[in-house]
């Protein structure tokens, strides 16, 4: 089971299917729209509860830990040792692929979420370049609005709003602030000011969004950038896969920039596959499937299509496009600095109940239902009231 249903995502799933077919494995897929949300996992839960689990399911972040804690997942330790997964996967991603020291999921990519995607034609017309700082970003948005374009495209899904917020917060407070507040869930009194500034900046960005955002999805917002109706979108590197699926070329049709003030950080969302131990597959089939997902050549082909960096840091980057190479280089550099950090929006930073609470607060604030101060108070309460239910919550 998987949730890859957009044009770019469908191209990605076809890479895996073709790779399996070449090895004599017929991979029958069931797609459920949901991008790792509770609605997708509800569909997985229904199958498991009915006694008909899939052999494998796409998953991200702490959802993997939840399934492992229930004892539903196959142990992949032998495969991981044989292929030396521990040596080639960043530790922060490994923390979500393992439960109580055992491998229970196979990471296939490392999407960066701290990215801006821009229409190259508008960028050139307005004589704009990459924004390194918050004031430079606002200047770009002002120019786009003056030219009659939608400055900032976004949809109506709470995870999108939270993805924008995590970028703003990381840029406002830096790596230590982000780790302390959103990974370790231990905000201090001194963090209140940075959180307030983050929500103030979100309120500023609201003024650059159009009214149509209330009735569109993330990929429809991507289409606005692709068609030149909007200047930019803050979104993960899966946008690169969408643009590729439409035949677009970096620096000719679109540009990819790091979100201002997040240089040196790699906020990640890692798509993974967890294998259910109660599915009646032979050990050989299960091993063949899991092993293939970690194959260097599959991860190269797959992530040229997805737009992400491979989950392995040793995949050659030469055949990736400019934005793909940027993602790979950023992942490698951040891995050395220990600034590869999980995305709040995509469930790689904290458990589901914390993520869902943050969704509600951030989305309510963006829709002008909470003041900046109210949003700060509710966010801190949601974070500090959480009690870890399994090892590895704080990293």
What can you see in these coordinates?
The protein is of the alpha+beta class and 395 residues long. The chain folds into two domains: 7-110 and 269-342, Periplasmic binding protein-like II (D-Maltodextrin-Binding Protein, domain 2); 112-267, D-Maltodextrin-Binding Protein, domain 2 (3-Layer(aba) Sandwich), CATH 3.40.190. The chain is 50% helix and 11% strand. The strands form four sheets. It has a four-stranded mixed sheet with strand order 7-8-6-9. The protein has a three-stranded antiparallel sheet with strand order 1-11-4, sandwiched between helices. A three-stranded mixed sheet has the order 5-10-12, sandwiched between helices. It starts with 6 loop residues before the first helix and ends in an 11-residue tail after the last helix. The relative contact order is 0.19. Residues 389-395 have low confidence and may be disordered.
Give a summary of the structure in a few sentences.
This protein is an alpha+beta fold.
Task: Tell me the strand percentage band.
Answer: 5-15%
> What do we call the CATH topology of the largest domain?
D-Maltodextrin-Binding Protein, domain 2
**How confident is the prediction overall: mean pLDDT?**
94
Main β-sheet, in a few words? Answer: 4 strands, mixed
Query: What is the chain-wise order of helices and strands?
Result: HHEHHHHEEEEEHHEHHHEHEEEHHHEHH
Architecture (CATH level 2) name of the largest domain = 3-Layer(aba) Sandwich
Broad structural category = alpha+beta
Distance from N terminus to C terminus (CA atoms, Å) equals 29 Å
CATH class of the largest domain: Alpha Beta
Pfam families: SBP_bac_1 (PF01547)
Subcellular location: Periplasm
Function: Part of a binding-protein-dependent transport system for a sugar.
Protein name: Probable sugar-binding periplasmic protein
């Amino acid at each position: 089971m998987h949730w890859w249903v957009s044009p770019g995502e469908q191209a990605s799933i076809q890479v895996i299917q073709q790779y399996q077919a070449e090895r004599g494995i017929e991979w029958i897929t069931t797609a459920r729209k949901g991008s790792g949300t509770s609605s997708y996992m509800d569909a997985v839960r229904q199958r498991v509860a009915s006694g008909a689990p899939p052999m494998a399911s796409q998953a991200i972040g702490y959802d993997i830990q939840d399934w492992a804690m229930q004892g539903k997942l196959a142990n992949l330790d032998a495969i991981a040792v044989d292929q030396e997964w521990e040596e080639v996967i960043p530790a922060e991603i490994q923390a979500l692929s393992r439960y109580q020291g055992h491998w229970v999921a196979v990471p296939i990519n490392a999407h960066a979420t701290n990215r801006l995607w821009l229409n190259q034609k508008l960028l050139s017309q307005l004589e704009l370049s990459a924004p390194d700082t918050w004031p430079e970003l606002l200047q770009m948005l002002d120019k786009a609005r003056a030219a009659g374009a939608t400055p900032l495209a976004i949809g109506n899904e709470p995870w999108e709003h939270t993805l924008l917020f995590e970028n703003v917060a990381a840029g406002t407070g830096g790596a230590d602030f982000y780790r302390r507040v959103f990974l370790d869930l231990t905000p201090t009194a001194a963090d209140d000011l940075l959180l307030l500034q983050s929500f103030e900046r979100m309120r500023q960005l609201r003024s650059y969004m159009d009214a149509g955002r209330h009735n569109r999805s993330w990929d429809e917002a991507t289409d606005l950038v692709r068609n030149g109706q909007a200047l930019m979108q803050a979104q993960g590197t899966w946008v690169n896969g969408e643009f590729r699926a439409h035949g677009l070329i970096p620096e000719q049709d679109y540009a990819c920039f790091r979100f201002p003030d997040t240089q040196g950080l790699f906020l990640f969302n890692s798509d993974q596959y967890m294998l259910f131990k109660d599915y009646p597959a032979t050990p050989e089939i299960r091993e063949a499937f899991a092993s293939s997902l970690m194959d260097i050549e599959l991860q190269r082909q797959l992530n040229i299509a997805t737009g992400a960096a491979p989950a392995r840091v040793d995949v050659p980057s030469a055949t990736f496009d400019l934005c793909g190479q940027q993602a790979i280089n950023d992942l490698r550099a951040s891995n050395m600095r220990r600034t590869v950090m999980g995305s709040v929006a995509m469930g790689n930073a904290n458990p589901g109940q914390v993520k869902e609470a943050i969704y509600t607060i951030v989305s309510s604030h963006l829709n002008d239902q909470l003041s900046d101060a109210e949003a700060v108070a509710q966010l801190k309460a949601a974070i500090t009231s959480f009690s870890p239910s399994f090892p590895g919550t704080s990293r």
